[in-house]
Known about the structure:
- Residues 1-21 form the signal peptide.
- Keywords: Signal.
- The protein is 86% helix and 0% strand.
- The chain has 5 helices and no strands.
- By secondary structure, it is mostly helical.
- The protein has a domain at 49-142.
- The model is unreliable at 1-24 (pLDDT under 50).
- α2 (36-57) packs antiparallel against α3 (62-87) and α4 (94-113) packs antiparallel against α5 (119-141).
- The radius of gyration is 23 Å and the shape is elongated.
Amino acid sequence: MLGSPFILVTLLASVVSVTQAAALKPRQLLGQLGSLQCNIARVRIVGALGDADQAIGNIQDQATSTAAAAGLSQANAGISQIANAILAGEEPPAESRSEVQAGLEAMAAALTANNSTDPAVGDAQSALTAATAAGEDVVAQC
């Protein structure tokens, strides 16, 4: 008969431990999410890169479009790594920020190498400028 209360107490202690551990995860996640300003900057960079993607898709010169798309892909890969780390409750790796920066720089190089009057290039450059400013805000705010 003594075994039953022991099992019950052990079971309750296990449930309490699991509940407390589960409660820590959202708190840790909230800590990783950052401030409101940080998250606004994150949304801005993602939005600006979406705008850049649309503009790059409309660029007439295939070489420029391909090179800019490669830079965009690199920046998006870095942002994905950062988002995955945040959602896992981990500190985003510094290498991911470097990857975003390298992608933005590759996009800039591709877009400035094109001397055409294609309005899509101008649109992509404007979106890149917005993404770069948002990225600088992310670094400052987060």
